Amino acid sequence: MRLISEKILNFRNIASAEFVPSESVTVICGENGQGKTNLLESIFLLSGAKSFRKVKDREMITKEEDFSVIDASFFAERREQSFHFTISDKGRRASLNQGSEQKASDFAGTFCCVVFSPDHLELVKGTPAERRRFLDTALCQLSPRYFNDLKTYTRLIQQKNTLLKDARGIAAAYDVLDIYDGQLAQCAVGLSKARRAFIGQLDVVSKEAYASISGKWEEMELGYESTIFSDGEFSADAAYQRILVSRADDIRAGFSTIGPHRDDLEIRINSDLAKTYASQGQQRTAVLALKLAEAELFRQKLGEEPVLLLDDVLSELDGFRQEFLLKRLGRSQAIITCCEPNFIERRTDAKVFRMQRGELTEE
Ligand SMILES: Nc1ncnc2c1ncn2[C@@H]1O[C@H](COP(=O)(O)OP(=O)(O)OP(=O)(O)O)[C@@H](O)[C@H]1O
Ligand SMILES: [Mg+2]
After folding, report:
1. Nearest residue CA, atom 24 of ligand 1?
2. Which CATH number among 2.60.120.260, 3.20.10.10, 3.40.50.300, 3.90.1570.10 corresponds to the domain 1-112+305-363?
3. How far apart are CA 110 and CA 295, in angstroms?
4. For residue 28, which ligand has an atom nearest its CA?
5. FRET label pair with 239: which of 6, 20, 169, 185, CA 20 to 30 Å apart?
6. Mean pLDDT of successive 10-residue segments in the chain (363 residues)?
7. Nearest Cα residue to 10 out of 47, 89, 63, 57
8. Domain spanning 118-303, CATH architecture
9. How much is the pTM?
10. Ligand 1 pocket member 36 (CB < 6 A)
């Protein structure tokens, strides 16, 4: 997988830019607030996912403009392909290889990338929602079925929650809840199975990466904490029964209290729960190991290297971890932002660009 070129119009502070990265390492340098992360964000959107910055689509359009356009050509499945991508009142839309325009998310899995950002430190110490987001973003790119299940599940949960707010004592509401719960149970099986399989694979690769960085005397371990399935048997019947048992709690709370939308990815370091006990250094190592594992699983599943977007992460890492990360980039295309390019330039044959007030120039 490789980005060949990108032409940007009205995206955040980038009024217009043309970007042709190197096939291997590209560095975008510049002072704070100049538009480096904006450029990475514009590339990440091609994956079909929402921005990694958790913002509304509208906020990515240049202020006082009505739409943004990104024209990208990229190499995937052994051929050159193109996206015409727009953000407007109609949301994020795209057409692939000059085909018909559709919701951008319909193209999830076509262009795959993995982003490393300092915000990912929240993966370890943050809320379960951060870790679910990590799992869902990766799985949606890897499996259209997961993407569809998640979309249906999320819609059903919203509908069920609306009903739960005024369900108490209304007999008819219980019949509708039965229908929702039956459908939710079906989706929960698909989502939970996929998550458990993915976490199992992540565990193997991240363990190895963590051991290499930490010097082998520490072990990282991942587990799937499901709120529905305790015994690893994923059946829709069992899920339905569990959801039914929680109904009184759901009505009292006014929302659905169990299901994949409440699950967690458990991270342990030397058997201790990382969200409670991990030190700063252990968090950094765990996040790096998780992200490298994500990239490696993409490579195994797609048979192609995903594009790696490294947002200002090198400055967050000590020398040893920096070297480790750069070595592990391997043959992937990597686009790296930083304030000071010297370090990377010395170690790679990087193509260097400077971003200044939304204007991109090659150095
Ligand atoms: N919708 C928008 N329209 C115009 N400008 C925007 C919009 N959204 C963000 N910006 C501007 O983009 C700039 C931030 O860009 P970005 O986050 O890419 O900076 P950066 O180069 O990555 O900086 P840092 O090194 O601090 O991370 C800010 O000046 C912000 O005002
Ligand atoms: Mg930035």
Report:
1. 32
2. 3.40.50.300
3. 15
4. 1
5. 169
6. 97 98 94 97 94 92 97 96 97 97 93 90 93 94 92 96 83 88 96 96 96 86 94 88 94 94 96 93 91 93 92 84 84 90 73 96 94
7. 63
8. Up-down Bundle (1.20)
9. 0.91
10. yes
| 356 CA → ligand 1 middle, Å | 11
Strand partners, 116: 310
Residue ranges per domain, the chain? 1-112+305-363, 118-303
CB of residue 312 inside a 6 A radius of ligand 1: yes
For 261, the 3-state DSSP assignment is helix
Distance CA 223, CA 229 (A): 13
**Which one, of 266, 262, 113, lies nearest residue 199 by Cα?**
266
Q: Which two tokens stand for residue 355?
A: 């971003």
Counting ligands in written order, the one closest to the CA of 10 is: 1
62 lines ligand 1 (CB under 6 A): yes
Token digits for 33? 């607030």
Q: Give the helix/strand (H/E) hosting 72.
A: strand 68-76
Q: Give residue 255's region: left, alpha or beta (phi > 0; psi -120 to 50).
A: beta
The answer for residues whose C-beta is within 8 angstroms of residue 27's C-beta and 6 or more apart is 336, 337, 338, 341, 344, 345, 350, 351, 352, 353
Q: Is 38 in the pocket of ligand 1 (CB under 6 A)?
A: yes
